Amino acid sequence: MLYLVEMIVQIPHTLDPALVAKIKQKEKEYSQKLQREGKWRHIWRVVGEYANVSVFDVASNDELHALLSALPLFPYMQISVKPLANHPSSIVQE
Ligand SMILES: O=C(O)CC1=CCC(=O)O1
């Protein structure tokens, strides 16, 4: 199942910069692991925002919830999820 996920990152300015750097490094490693596994199909930066738009390919709502809630930046993110279905005019059926 495919999902369009938007993540808006809002890290409090009061957080220790060294801790922030550590969390961001863990986030990168976690995201690249999921990309290599084919579960995190795309990640795009939203121009001018500390936000991304991503496409996930996972088996269920529960799996997506588990993956998203394990993001190191999860406590500092606003996340929205849209499940995707095939469009009848698409020449690619997934
Ligand atoms: O910078 C972001 O958009 C947050 C993020 C998600 C995965 C990653 O590596 O960074």
From TrEMBL:
The keyword Isomerase applies. SUPFAM superfamilies: Dimeric alpha+beta barrel. Pathway: Aromatic compound metabolism; beta-ketoadipate pathway; 5-oxo-4,5-dihydro-2-furylacetate from catechol: step 3/3. NCBIfam families: muco_delta. Its EC number is 5.3.3.4. GO terms for molecular function: muconolactone delta-isomerase activity. It comes from the Bacteria. This is Muconolactone Delta-isomerase. It catalyses: (S)-muconolactone = (4,5-dihydro-5-oxofuran-2-yl)-acetate. Coiled coil: none annotated. Residues 1-89 form the Muconolactone isomerase domain. Belongs to the muconolactone Delta-isomerase family. InterPro entries: Dimeric_a/b-barrel, MLI_dom, Muconolactone_d_Isoase. Homodecamer. GO terms for biological process: beta-ketoadipate pathway. It holds the Pfam family MIase. Keywords: Aromatic hydrocarbons catabolism, Isomerase.
